[in-house]
Specification:
Strand order of the largest sheet: 1-2
Distance between the termini: 13 Å
Radius of gyration: 16 Å
Strand content: under 5%
Largest sheet: 2 strands, antiparallel
Number of strands: 2
Shape: globular
Structural class: mainly alpha
Helix content: 40-55%
Order of helices and strands: HHHHEEHHHH
């Protein structure tokens, strides 16, 4: 997803992003940039508190390694998309699709799925229901990537988003979210420190 460009190639920790984050934060003497991967965020959301103390981060790393050892990347992404916050009090892709577009996640159009994928970095700032210029730009990048033959197909298997039965629509959602994962580094996402 937008927060983790190397999701399909790392082992749960993106050491390049971690190094860059530490360098940026060290330069500015403040925490402005996070480096948590999708798997780390899933570990935190499932088992830990949102506190930022070092002990919690060590526990998060241990859980992350276990999740990566036990689950496929497809399953990790599926759990992540169905558990994350998509806006104030909106949890999971199904609830977000219903709230923002009035349809089940399985019935999202490519444009709607791309808006949702683009909003993941900070759903309290970027609303698919009221997209600002930046979110619309992200949507276009994701839609462009979805249409390309080199769009990621890593991970294999079907990601179940929400509870609908429309496999074509789920495939559209998967391509949107996979494209957002792959596109992350080419986007200037700014100082989204809240993304952890």
């Amino acid at each position: 997803v937008a927060e983790d460009a190397a999701f399909f190639s790392h082992d749960g920790v993106d050491y390049d992003e971690l190094r860059l984050s530490m360098e940026k934060n060290w330069e500015r003497w403040q925490f402005l940039r996070g480096a948590s991967t999708i798997t780390q965020q899933l570990a935190k959301n499932l088992y830990l508190s949102p506190s930022r103390n070092p002990y919690r981060k060590v526990r998060e790393l241990m859980i992350t390694r276990r999740l990566e050892a036990e689950l496929s990347k497809t399953r990790i992404l599926e759990l992540y998309l169905n558990l994350i916050e998509w806006g104030d009090g909106i949890w999971g892709a199904e609830a977000a699709a219903q709230r923002y577009f009035g349809v089940p996640a399985s019935d999202l159009s490519a444009e709607q799925a791309a808006l949702m994928a683009g909003a993941i970095i900070n759903p309290r700032v970027y609303s698919p229901a009221h997209p600002n210029k930046r979110l619309l730009q992200r949507q276009q990048i994701i839609l462009g990537r979805m249409g390309r033959k080199d769009a990621p197909a890593e991970g294999g298997g079907e990601i179940r988003i929400g509870s609908g039965k429309g496999s074509v629509a789920r495939d559209t959602c998967r391509r949107a979210f996979d494209s957002a994962v792959a596109e992350h580094r080419s986007l200037d996402i700014g100082h989204d420190a809240q993304r952890q």
